[in-house]
Amino acid sequence: MGQEPRHILSLSGGKDSAALAIYLRDRIPQIEYIFHDTDKELEETYDYIHRLEAILGKPIVRTTPEDSFDHWLKVYRGMLPSNHRRWCTKMLKLKPFEAYVGDGPVINYVGLRADENRTGYISTKPNILAVYPFQDDGLVRADIIRILEDSGLGLPPYMDWGRSRSGCYFCFYQQKIEWVRLLEKHPKYFALAMEYEEKAVLHGEQFYWCKNEPLRELAKPERVQAIKDNWETAEARRRKARKNISLAETLGGLEPEDDPHLRDGCLVCSI
Ligand code: SF4
């Protein structure tokens, strides 16, 4: 007889994986929950994972990588990660996941919903079978919000101030409006991100987290105001186009289809 598979769910600190953990808690009691801690997450994310752990009633294993972001940054000779050279996901999320999983058979539960059309790297290891319970059972965004509310966990607290993502505070997938919100909510994280950017110059590279704009420029009051105004205008257009979507569904102010992080499939960091 073949070896029984382990059942594993990776939590990102995002709402969909949290809802899936709650959804599967009683259905698959032997499930193992893991969280790949980059050590660069927002404190709200750590708090959310902690509260989720209490609701699940079992530990969420932290697969903190042996080597930190700053270690890998040195290995990559000061080259900060970006969409085109995403070593951060590989070194801080995927490798720790595969190390934790090992070589035995594993069923990997992924929180993609039935109302979205995302893809992304899960794992190509042949012993890992990815399954999508929300898609199989037809659960959409409103169902996920209901699961989170009924459990008492609610949405991730960073959504209260308009951030759409879990993951590193400096994640290069952030939209400009999210950088502005980070600046206003967590100026110390914004300053740290700016420091990384400015140090990159010392390694001979002009690197900006946010496309072609240095964070120091983006933080200027007139730029902050312009970004907010642009966002308000775009948001008014979007609201018009989706009159029938409930307030709960638009919490956070960013929809997945607006969000390149989600569109581009960095599932392990953000789902
Ligand atoms: S959240 Fe962003 S910066 Fe952090 S590991 Fe994922 S892709 Fe990289």
UniProtKB/TrEMBL annotation:
It comes from the Bacteria. One of its GO terms (molecular function) is catalytic activity. Signal peptide: none annotated. InterPro entries: PAPS_reduct_dom, Rossmann-like_a/b/a_fold, Sulfate_adenylyltrnsfr_sub2. Residues 7-119 form the Phosphoadenosine phosphosulphate reductase domain. This is Phosphoadenosine phosphosulfate reductase.
